[in-house]
Amino acid sequence: MSEFDLIRTYFAGLGARRTDVVLGVGDDCALLDLGADQWLAVSLDTLVAGVHFLADCDPEALGHKALAVGLSDLAAMGARPAWATLALTLPGADPAWVAAFAHGLGRLAKAHGVALVGGDTTRGPLAITVQVHGLVAPGQAIRRAGARPGDQVWVSGHLGDAGLALRRIQAGAPVSEPLRRRLERPDPRVAIGLRLRGLAHAMIDVSDGLAADLGHILEASGVGASVELAALPLSPDVAEALANGAGWDLPLAAGDDYELCFTAPAAHSGRIEAVALEARCPLTRIGCVTSEPGLRASQPDGALWPIARSGYDHFRDEA
Where does ATP bind (predicted)? Predict the structure, then answer.
């Protein structure tokens, strides 16, 4: 079973049915009705040594990333970050390591107006769990289910940088500082998510790879999409890797990008381009939503690229 099969089979809909649960399992965040014209967006992520980060990862960078992945989920819902809790499992009490980790987490939290309000600390194999909480007005959250045929497909930033950095680290090859930063210190696109409220029909953060995460939008919305690979936004490093035979799976499926992928009507393209200028981050139109199910990726010569690997899956990939 895949990780998503496990969730759907055993955990979706578990527990009592409550009228204040606007949206439960199955999106970037759950949405809870607080009353007083406020919805609470909640997301939780765990990072495990050797799975999500290298054992010798800089602790300050790890503190940053531990919070950034949750902030990326809030960004995908168009929610404004507010609070976080932390569960930290440590093999030992190393004050220097903890101080650096806390500095990295705290600096990003301050930048996004987030207060750390609780958590748990225990001894064991190194693992970090962060739960984030954000606020969004009723009806303004951007969900995965909402894409419509005719929508344009957009993505923020660049794709494949983190995946390329990891490949080079694992191969013992040199890694440029920009690539390493993209892997270890992703920039959650919170400002873009907030500005896309009222413009985007559907949105998701790209954490497992564009093909997999866009696929979640398509499945939730009951639609398909056509993507032009030549339109994918690539850094010079990734473009060079592709020219040297890396293959389109690098920007499509390597994961850890923490960009936003969203769909929006063509009539909003001008306003979306203005959002890119305001947020100082490129937003690139890469394709369109179709009524025919499935994801199709066209190469520059018009041939379809076989999407053999759609993204990372903790259980299928291990098998």
Answer: 119-120, 144, 207
Do the annotations mark residue 20 as ligand-binding? no
What integer best gives the mean pLDDT of the chain?
A: 94
Of the two residues 315 and 50, the one the predictor is more confident about is 50
Find out whether 205 is annotated in a ligand binding site: yes
d(CA 213, CA 154): 13
Strands (DSSP E) contained in 112-156 are 115-123, 127-136, 152-156
| Residues with Cβ within 8 Å of residue 52, at least 6 apart in sequence | 46
The answer on whether 43 is annotated among ligand-binding residues is yes
Beta bridge mates, 46: 129
Does 52 appear as a known binding residue? yes
Question: Any binding-site annotation on 156?
Answer: no
256 annotated binding-site participant? yes
Alpha-carbon gap, residue 33 to 83, rounded angstroms: 16
Residue 312 annotated in ligand binding: yes
The C-alpha atoms of residue 167 and residue 242 are separated, in whole angstroms, by: 13
pLDDT given at position 131: 98
Q: Which two tokens stand for residue 252?
A: 């499509």
- pLDDT at position 11, please? 84
Q: Is 56 annotated as a binding-site member?
A: no
Q: What is the pTM of this model?
A: 0.94
State the Cα–Cα distance between residues 125 and 122, nearest whole angstrom.
10
The verdict on whether residue 119 carries a ligand-binding annotation is yes
For residue 188, pLDDT over 70 is answered with: yes
One-letter amino acid for residue 140 of the chain: Q
pLDDT at 314 over 70: no
